[in-house]
Amino acid sequence: MTRTVIRGGLVVTAAEETHADVLIEDGRIAALAAHGSAAGESWTADRTIDAGGKYVIPGGVDAHTHMELPFGGTFASDTFETGTRAAAWGGTTTIIDFAVQSQGQPLRAGLDAWYAKADSNCAVDYGFHMIVSDVNEGTLKEMDLLVAEGITSFKLFMAYPGVFYSDDGQILRAMQRSAGNGGLIMMHAENGIAIDVLIEQALAEGRTDPRYHGEVRKVLLEAEATHRAIQLARVAGAPLYVVHVSAEEAVAELAQARDMGLNVFGETCPQYLFLSTDNLAEPDFEGAKYVCSTPLRPREHQAALWRGLRTNDLQVVSTDHCPFCFTGQKDLGRGDFSKIPNGLPGVENRMDLLHQAVVDGHISRRRWIEIACASPARMFGLYPRKGTIAPGADADVVVYDPHAEQVISAETHHMNVDYSAYEGKRITGKVETVLSRGETVVDRGEFTGRAGHGQYVPRGTCQNLI
Q: What share of the chain is helix, strand, coil (3-state, %, to 5)?
């Protein structure tokens, strides 16, 4: 039995803040005890970590990543090895990535391919969602089998015709199936058919720069698709989780549904909270660095997203981490914005950026932990094993220095991509030490983890349903 004690820190969870010492035994949280208490003072350990003046928080749960994703003739530049190492550096100890079904292939073939990509390569724990790009009778039956295997969420796309797109009938069938098997439908809500018309028109008129990526993917087409997805879920009697919500009008659709008592949930991402169309409009093709879908919006949308996070109309902040290098990948779209690979790097930055939101007064400390750790764990059937610090939970623990200052830069990040979406941003707060199931993977600025430490985690069903 190995024992570690973390002493002197402020333990912050979604539920409470406690000045407590934490005892870890064999990879799990064994006990908490108030500083100086007889119980805590009696603990002996193989290792003691001094967290005086620091926060002791649960490891982050990033419920939306795309390692090695094929897209637009290339692949996301982070492998499961490099991506999960970067996640650890940023205080995230669990990712949920997306296995992809290819058109004409069974779900199982796509899932097995993702098992093979991740197996023995991950530095932190991982699970999978399943992207369903070909809804048919065989696929629907497979969904039941995957839920039993711990793949309890299925992503559908109203965007990307010819690649991932599902029509309303296919979406309804998948939602009906999930209503019966307990799965959760995740929706990329943009009207892809209409967007393709606007892309064609823009290119014909010579509007080819990256900023037009944001202009053709209209706010109203996100809001319309969000509304339509909610109504289809109501017809099916199924829960719905809308990914990467970026627009005020889409938040309003979610809020209205939740006010009706529906099992409708929403996620946003740091890029929508901290970046804007100003970035997409950067000159000399620099705006290509910020091409993602849903796209960055005008800055005035940010207030609605922060408000949605405070009121719980948005429950989760994930990264949609899908990095492509500026040189050799993003520049595939020079002269045609529609050929720029869609995606941003961010798995390493999420916990720090959200702590900056605490410093800036957007959210509280406990809400930080809720939207980054506890809520994604509950949403995707991992709680209380993940997302909290409590007896019995996995010892995924971060010692976080709330006073340290840092500047985000590609020169110092660990993601396998040649730029940072937040280059030069000064933030307060920094990960100091990270434990994954009790094993130290980052130790005061040194990576001590290894590929293969991370384990596949089967998930239960959504724990947030009314």
A: 35, 25, 40
The CA dihedral of 247, 65, 317, 419, to the nearest 10 degrees, is -80
Cβ atoms of 370 and 29 closer than 8 Å: no
Print the SS3 string covering 210-238: CHHHHHHCCHHHHHHHHHHHHHHHHHHCC
Q: How far is CA 83 from CA 52, 154, 333, 415, 421, in A?
A: 30, 22, 24, 6, 16
3-state SS, residue 186? strand
pLDDT digit string, tens, across residues 125-179: 999 999 999 999 999 999 999 999 999 999 999 999 999 999 999 999 999 999 9
Q: Is the dihedral of CA 27, 31, 35, 41 positive or negative?
A: negative
Q: What's the burial of 466, exposed, middle or buried (CB within 10 Å: 0-12/13-18/19+)?
A: exposed
- Compute the distance between CA of residue 461 and CA of residue 466 in angstroms, rounded to an integer: 13
Helical residues (DSSP H) of 312-432, grouped into ranges: 350-359, 365-369, 375-379
Question: Beta partners for 126?
Answer: 95, 456
Segment 115-120 shows an average pLDDT of 98
Within 10 Å of residue 360's Cβ, how many Cβ atoms? Answer: 11
Report the pLDDT value the prediction gives residue 1, as an integer from 0 to 100.
72
Q: How far is CA 290 from CA 29, 275, 341, 351, in A?
A: 40, 9, 10, 20
Question: Rounded to an integer, what is the distance from CA 46 to the centroid of its chain?
Answer: 34
Q: How crowded is residue 67: how many other Cβ atoms within 10 Å of its Cβ?
A: 29
Write the CA distances from 325 to 29, 63, 288, 341, integer angstroms. Answer: 39, 23, 10, 9
Could you tell me the two tokens for 405?
A: 């200052």
pLDDT at res. 312: 98
- As a whole number of Å, the CA-based R_g of the chain is 21
Give me 137's structure tokens.
């009778």
pTM of the model: 0.98
DSSP bridge pairs for 456: 126
